[in-house]
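pinging the channel bc i need a second pair of eyes. not urgent but kinda urgent?? the chain im working w is below, pasted from the shared doc
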Amino acid sequence: MSRDKNFEELYRRFHPSLVSFATYLTGSNADASELVNDVFFAVWQKKHKLTIDESLKSYLFAAVKNRSINFHKKTKMKLVEILPHDKESTLTADLNIKQKETDDKLQTILEVLPPKCRQVFVMSRIDKLKNKEIASLLDISIKTVENQMTKALKIIKEKWKIE
């Protein structure tokens, strides 16, 4: 089988899951597609040096993860909205103001968390992912996820008292 056919097969096999992973990391399908295409372009340029086997899958996911990290560094890492307001509230005006203040306070505190700590916290508490899923997506141990959550909760608790 030619290198071009191998590459085409590799692209068809991994492109959808890589875009899905990158979309999760970037929060944007358009940016995710661009990042994944950049990764495949880099692989295409190195196609004569690479061996297409199972380790290439790990390489592709790691490359997408790294490009996503660089993407966030360049765009100053926009935080996800903490509490979406999809439904019209039935609360009184005072309660709406208090909720907004609480949301703003939490958003401010999240901004001071270290990036990895914030990412793990958001994935756990906002996206409702299990520690095992977070560990798998970020390619870290479950213990590291637990440690980052402990750290995040400790910082949030301390900052909440101060503000």
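so The chain is about 75% helix and 0% strand. and Confidence is low (pLDDT under 50) at residues 77-83. — does that match what u expected or am i reading it wrong
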